Amino acid sequence: MQPINRMLPARGHTDGFTIIEILVALLLIGVLVLVVLAPLTGLFGLTRQSMRQTDATALAQGVMEDIRGQWQNWDKYDAACVAGGALPSGVTVSVQNMTVQGATSGTATTLTRSSATACPGKTGPRLTYAPSGSPLLRRVTVTATVQDRTSSLIAEVAQP
């Protein structure tokens, strides 16, 4: 049998952690959390910027497709006219006439939407030659801005 003093722990030595050890562990955990979370907050900001850029691009694409679709009608193309309500806010459209060789002709003009009655709308095959003032090719630039993000699309639209 062992003496009684060997069965009891030595004085001053107890099981568990001291308050200093716990505070040091919490400090280390706090530093690790900061190191991990600091880059994540930057990623959230990039995600918001990316979403605004995507929204601006989608807005510009929608306007561009509307113009291209309406200009399948040769009267609207000749008049450089697009029917419908006003352009969405933050969207500007400029039109530049071009030659067949791709050189610009004249100055770029800003396109606005007209009311359906002000915009001609003949359809069907063109029975006569295009008016002399109607270019064979037009460069359309659509610029859309959503908050601080801007997207510009350029398309060349041929005479129908």
TrEMBL record:
Main location group: membrane
Subcellular location: Cell outer membrane; Periplasm
Transmembrane intervals: 20-46
Recorded topology in the membrane: Single-pass membrane protein
Key words, A-Z: Cell outer membrane, Membrane, Periplasm, Transmembrane, Transmembrane helix
KW Membrane (keyword) present: yes
Transmembrane among keywords: yes
Protein name as it appears in the record: Prepilin-type N-terminal cleavage/methylation domain-containing protein
Protein's organism: Deinococcus aetherius
